[in-house]
UniProtKB/TrEMBL annotation:
Membrane-crossing segments per the record: none
Lineage per the UniProt record: Eukaryota, Metazoa, Spiralia, Gnathifera, Rotifera
Name listed for the protein in its UniProt record: Tetratricopeptide repeat protein
Coiled coil: none
Top-rank lineage group of the source organism: Eukaryota
Ranges of the TPR repeats in the UniProt entry: 81-114, 118-151, 160-193, 202-235, 244-277, 286-319, 327-360, 369-402
Gene3D superfamilies from the UniProt entry: Tetratricopeptide repeat domain (1.25.40.10)
A Pfam cross-reference name: TPR_12
Keyword Acyltransferase: no
InterPro entries: TPR-like_helical_dom_sf, TPR_rpt
Keywords, sorted A to Z: Repeat, TPR repeat
Amino acid sequence: MTIDPSKISTSITPFAMIDKHSALPREQEILFTMHSVFRIVEITQTPSNSRLWEVQLTITDESDPQLSTLTNHIKEEVQSSNEWYRMGKLMLQVGHFDQAEELYNELLKGASTDSDIAYIYHELGRVKKGQGEYQEAVKFYEKSLDIKRKTLPEDDVSLADTYGNIGAVYDSMGEYSKALEYYEKANKIFEISLPPTHPDLAISYNNIGRVYDNMGEYSKALECFEKAIKIWEISLPKNHPNFAVTYSAFGRVYRGLKEYSKALSYFQISISIREQALPEKHPNRAVTYSDIGDVHRLMGDYERALAFHQKALNIQENVKCNPLERATTYMNLGETYREMKDYTTALTYYQKGLEIREEKLAKTHPDLAVIYHIMSKLYFSTQKYSMAMKYVQQAVEIGQEKLPATHPHLVEYRETFEKIRKKQ
C-alpha cells in the first residue's frame, strides 16, 4: 500500500496512525476513513499459496481525474428530486437488491400520484430481475406500463425504458422472440426521441445484440455491440461500468465463434473496468470472473480456469445475488473437472447447477438444454450410455422448440445425440 502525501487533499484526513493508542502496539495499526479510495496497481498470485493474491494499492483522492469523472456520471445516473429515489437507484447500481426492495416497498405505501406509483413499480421490476425472479419482474413492469400508457404519449422515453426492461426479462427467460419484440419497441422510441449519441440508445443496441447472441446470430450481435461501443466512447468516461457490459458481450460472441484469444481479451478489459468501478463483492464482477475462467478452460488452461471460477464463487456464495449466475459458475466448474477427467467432482457441480436451473427456469428454457447436454457428455465419457441418451434427448427437444434450426447449440446437441446413439 502506497500513500503519496502530495495527493492527499487538505480538506480530508484519509488515515491515522493509531499504534500508540492500540492494545497491540507491535501491529502498527493504521485506521482509514470510510471514504478513502485506493487505485489497484497490481494483483499477483503469492508463490507460496496459489489461492492467495497480493494486491498493491496506492491512495487517491477527489482530485483523481478518472475517479472524479466516473463519480460525476454515477451522480447523474442516480439523479432525482426525491432523495429516497436516489438511494434506491444507488442500491440497484451496486447490486444491493434486497435493501432496494425493502426501500421501494416502503415508498409504495406512501405513494400518492400515478407517476410515483408507476416509477416504484418499474424499480421493483428491476429489483426482481436482479434477484432472478423473472415472472415477478414482468408483473411489476406491466403494472408500471399500464399506468404510463394512460398518462403518457406513445413515444415517451419513459415507456421505452419499461419496454426495454421487459425485453431484458424475457431474454433471461429464454423467450428470445418476445425479448426482441420489446427491445425493438423500445429502440424505435429511442431513435425518434433521443439524440444519436444518447447513452440510453447504446443500452438499447446492447440489448438487441444480446438477444441475437443468444439466438446464435453472431454477426448481427457484433453489429449492435459496435453501435453501442461507439456511443459509449462519446458519452461516457472510459471506466464506466456500461463499457464493461458491452466488452463482456463482445467476449461472449467471440467465445461462441470459438475465437478464444479475442474473447479473453474482451473479458479482461471488462473485468479491469469492473474492478475499478464496482464494489469488491459486486455480482457483475463474479460473472466476469467465471466468463474468464470458462475461456481459460476452452484454451486448455485448467488451473487458471479453476482459480477464476473460485473467485466467482467466493462472491456468489457469500453475497445475495441472482442464483442463476451461481448456477452458471457451478456448470463451468463442472465442465472444467469433466475435461480434467475428474468425473465425480464434475457431476457434483453439474447437479448443483441443475438444481438451481430446474427450480428457477421454465422447463423449456434454452439454459436447461445447455446443462442437459453437458451432463450427457459426462455420462458418455463414463460409458453410461442410457443416462447420456436421456439427457441429450431433453437437450435436443428444448433446442428444437426454442432455438433457430441453425443455432450452433442445437447443431452440437444433434451431433452428441448421434455419437451416443451409435454406442447403444
